[in-house]
Design brief:
With about 900 residues, the chain is of the alpha/beta class. The protein contains 37 helices and ten strands. An eight-stranded parallel barrel has the order 1-2-3-4-7-8-9-10, surrounded by eight helices. Strands 5-6 form a two-stranded antiparallel sheet. The longest helix is centred in the N-terminal third of the chain and has 32 residues. About 50% of the residues are buried. The N terminus is likely disordered.
């Protein structure tokens, strides 16, 4: 190649000359001037891609001239450039969030106070559930390097730095970048379930344990001291418990995960108790300690006799420092609880529950004699114990309905002979209501049944806070949930009443949650729930749980089935029907939104999504999944995490206190028309075109995604890979890599153009749901790059059908883009703001190099070039980094 060297590094990040120099130094050290020249030339050709028709051929020829072994250093260089740009964006977001800190929460506090100035305020029950879905390609080793670089860049931004401090930070930055460049972006081995658990626990340990407590304290300050001691937001996790389609998750991983959660929670509490115990050296001269605290200390002296003796011997000078002494006893009890969790037999008692620990800490807090100390670290620790307890995050278990039916066929006598839904429902209902527990033959139970046995042991050992939910995926009929109820009955998690009184001895330790995902199950969901609400056995389960029911909605599979626009309206209508129905049956409903990171999987800003829900469906109660790269984006930094949590909570408060008005009948008719036409357009391409699956396999990198080792479960359900069997995540991932992002917008143009433009403009201006739909489409369309995307279709043979498919995609993209512009009439799509334009242009050239490299390496890999595999996988990671999403 001829060296052009147009200083490509200056276009990334903040443009800081120090960063530019250090980036160049890293590449020069790792690959010499030759690497710098190669990267600079490819970047220069990519910059001309949209200005010169010949530039595409020039870039393609330059990429084709590279050997497969030469590609990997270039891929790493481009990926590092894009990752640095991400870090710069994050730092920019942090500065903005500092300027607007807690503003949204203050507004939420005003709404809460105004909602009931003289009475009870709306109760909040918000749960964010972190999942182990393979949507974050970044290795933890790479994430740690990025954090180190971010910390150094943030530090260098401090104008107070002296020359020595600046030089030291620059040396740390150069070291971190050098190690990062030499680190593989792609894992060499597929992660085990335990690795996925550890990855999520890392975010709890490093960020969420503190951010969650800070959120609760900020919310209390915004609402007022009478906000109460109930945490407004809690956390859950699927890692280690999501059995759906994952043969690696089962009873063993459930048990191991629960223990890992508990161990980490206790260790973090101990870590924070230690400094308090050392530093609370107050001696009360003015006001005597409360009687309750003195009685508590006397009880500790009696029950923790060995600890008391040790304290008297080692710290005799602390005899009058009774707050410190009480904290020492609290720490000793938590130490003993941890020891028991690890399988040891402590000779002194621990705590039976975190409530006991909170009571002891509250006694200390009430006796510190200082308002500043009362609201300090001890207050934060109490909130951490309230939110995270000894379980850290509530584990949730999920299994496919098919597996539950199979377990019942094996274990429930006569069930295998049931052929119709009526027969299955009758058999399960009768079995659930039997007073005697189901017989157990002692043999090996199916995995689904064994999981319920493990859950029962866990609830008995750790309490319901540790594991309280079982989700039935692909739920389509009442028997799907009744199978779960009978398996819970078999394991002792559900006990029917012993007499005619429905509450006589009845108990149910597990929330059973149907997950409705595709078009037909969503449309029939209210019928399914009506039959369950009227079923004798399920009604007893509901009564035992205070008539509370949770229902989960699957955004990913709904969009894969119907397309984005149609799926959003289908889920909206489903929520309305379920909410109305729950009111009619006297049921307290909580909706669980199974969202992902991309537009097609329900992604987008949390506040926009929450405020777009149907009026009256939030009511202070909501659950939302946080998946993959979204977890890294939101919870990798304590300040960003707190900002994200505040945004979510503020939106829930607003949707609860100011739910808005239902859509007008004319708007409903219009969106019905839009959704119908959009669904028809999408399905005619994806599900009805005979050659679509084959073209999809040839024109996207779907065949290499399984080699990435980014998740513990397979990319498809079953052996034969079809569009229907493919999981929603790799389906979206593959289209995202091509820069087309078809799943986030295809069909919406046809749908919108089938309707009334004037009416759609009115809906956009006055209906939050439709405004969110169009805004999400706008964002998705802005990310589409057909200049690059059409190159992927050149991989297909024969070329004719692929060209025809591309023409259909291009036509629909043009139609959708023009219609969205006609509705919104913004300048964002046609003339982005200067800052956004500069940043996008800087990213685009690096992304284009990676895309052209990926296309070339895909061809080589499919032709049998083994050397192409490693750099090819690295391009997937690089493009995901640049786009900040896998889909």
């Amino acid at each position: 190649m001829t060296a052009i060297r147009p200083q490509p590094f200056a276009t990334i990040g903040s443009g800081d000359p120090t960063l530019t120099r250090l980036l160049a130094d890293v590449l020069r050290e790792q690959g010499g001037e030759e690497l710098l020249d190669a990267v600079a030339e490819l970047h220069a050709r990519a910059e001309d891609l949209r200005r010169d028709d010949a530039a595409g051929g020039s870039l393609r020829a330059a990429v084709a001239a590279l050997g497969s072994d030469e590609a990997l250093p270039i891929v790493r260089a481009c990926t590092m450039q894009l990752a640095i740009a991400n870090i710069a964006d994050d730092l920019r977001r942090l500065r903005l969030s500092r300027a607007a800190e807690t503003r949204g929460l203050a507004s939420a506090g005003s709404l809460m106070r105004g909602a009931a100035p003289d009475g009870a305020r709306p109760a909040l029950d918000v749960r964010l559930v972190l999942t182990a879905h393979p949507t974050d390609i970044s290795r933890r080793s790479v994430l740690s390097k990025r954090r180190a670089v971010s910390a150094c860049l943030d530090g260098l931004d401090d104008p107070r730095l002296g020359s020595f401090e600046r030089r030291q930070l620059e040396e740390e930055l150069a070291e971190a970048m050098s190690i990062w460049y030499a680190t593989n972006e792609v894992r060499s081995m597929r992660p085990r379930v335990a690795d996925e658990v550890r990855r999520l626990l890392f975010f709890f340990e490093s960020v969420l344990f503190d951010a969650g407590a800070d959120l609760a304290r900020d919310f209390r300050d915004a609402v007022g001291e009478d906000a109460g001691a109930t945490a407004p937001l809690r956390f859950g996790s699927w890692a280690g418990g999501d059995m759906d389609g994952n043969p690696n998750v089962g009873p063993t991983t459930i048990a191991e995960t629960l223990r890992a959660h508990r161990e980490l929670a206790l260790r973090m509490l101990i870590e924070r108790l230690g400094p308090l115990r050392r530093e609370f050296s107050q001696v009360s001269f003015e006001a005597p300690l409360g009687e309750a605290l003195r009685e508590s200390l006397a009880r500790d002296e009696c029950e923790l006799e060995r600890t008391a003796a040790e304290l008297a011997t080692r710290y005799p000078h602390e005899a009058k420092e009774l707050l410190r002494r009480k904290l020492a006893f609290v720490k000793a009890r938590v130490d003993n609880t941890l020891s028991a969790t690890l399988g040891h037999q402590p000779d002194e008692p621990g705590y039976e529950s975190p409530t006991e620990m909170c009571s002891d800490l509250e006694l200390v807090r009430q006796n510190v004699g200082s308002a500043a100390v009362m609201r300090g670290r001890l207050d934060r620790l109490i909130w951490q114990a309230r939110i995270f307890g000894f379980h850290l995050a509530t584990l949730e278990v999920r299994e496919n309905a098919t597996e539950l039916h199979e377990a019942c066929r094996v274990l429930l006598p006569g069930y295998a002979a049931a052929r119709t839904e009526i027969e299955r429902t009758a058999a399960l209902t009768h079995a659930c209501l039997q007073e005697e527990a189901p017989a157990r033959d002692g043999g090996v139970a199916p995995k689904a049944a064994a999981a319920f046995d493990t859950i029962a042991r866990a609830v008995a050992t750790y309490g319901r806070e540790a594991l309280d939910t079982f989700i039935v995926s692909h739920c389509e009929q009442p028997s799907d949930l009744l199978c779960a109820l009978w398996l819970a009955r078999r394991s002792g998690l559900f006990t029917p009443p012993r007499g005619p009184d429905p509450g006589d001895g009845c108990s149910s330790s597990l929330e059973l949650v149907p997950l409705f995902e595709r078009r037909v199950p969503l449309e029939r969901s209210s019928h399914t729930m009506a039959e369950l609400y009227g079923n004798d056995a399920y009604r007893r389960h509901l009564e035992a749980r205070g008539r509370r029911q949770e229902v989960m909605l699957g955004y990913s599979d709904a969009a894969k089935d119907m397309g984005y626009a149609a799926s959003q309206w289908s889920i909206y209508r489903t929520q309305e029907r379920l909410a109305w129905q729950a009111v009619e049956h006297g049921v307290e409903l909580r909706l669980f939104h199974g969202r992902g990171g991309s537009t097609s999987r329900g992604g987008g800003p949390a506040s926009r999504s929450i405020l777009a829900q149907p009026p009256g469906t939030v009511g202070g109660r909501i659950k939302i999944t946080e998946q993959g790269e979204v977890i890294s984006a939101k919870f990798s930094d304590p300040r960003l995490a707190l900002d994200s949590l505040q945004e979510t909570l503020a939106a829930v408060v607003q949707a609860t206190v100011q739910p808005g008005s239902p859509p007008k009948p004319a708007w409903r008719d219009e969106i019905d028309l839009i959704a119908g036409a959009a669904c028809s357009s999408y399905q005619s391409l994806v599900h009805e075109r005979p050659d679509f699956a084959e073209l999809f396999a040839q024109c996207t990198p779907i065949d290499v995604l399984g080699l990435l080792n980014i998740g513990s479960r397979p990319t498809s359900r079953g052996q034969r890979r079809t569009v229907q069997s493919l999981r929603a995540i790799p389906w979206v991932f593959a289209w995202t890599q091509t820069r087309i992002g078809l799943t986030s917008w295809y069909g919406a143009g046809a749908g919108l153009c089938a309707g009334d433009l004037t009416l759609q403009r009115t809906m956009y201006a006055h209906w939050p749901f439709f405004h969110g739909l169009i805004t999400s489409l706008e964002s998705a369309l802005s990310a589409v790059d057909l200049t690059v995307g059409r190159r992927y279709f050149e991989l297909a043979q024969p070329a004719g059908p692929a060209a025809e498919l591309y023409d259909a995609i291009e036509t629909e993209h043009r139609r959708c883009r023009e219609r969205v512009l006609a509705i919104t009439r913004p300048e964002r799509l046609t003339r982005p703001a200067p800052e956004s334009l500069d940043r996008d242009a800087a990213r685009r050239a690096w992304l284009d190099v990676l895309s052209f490299l990926q296309i070339e390496l895909l061809g080589r890999h499919r032709a049998g070039d083994d050397d192409a595999c490693e750099p090819l996988l690295a391009t997937v990671a690089g493009i995901a980094t640049g786009l900040r999403t896998t889909g």
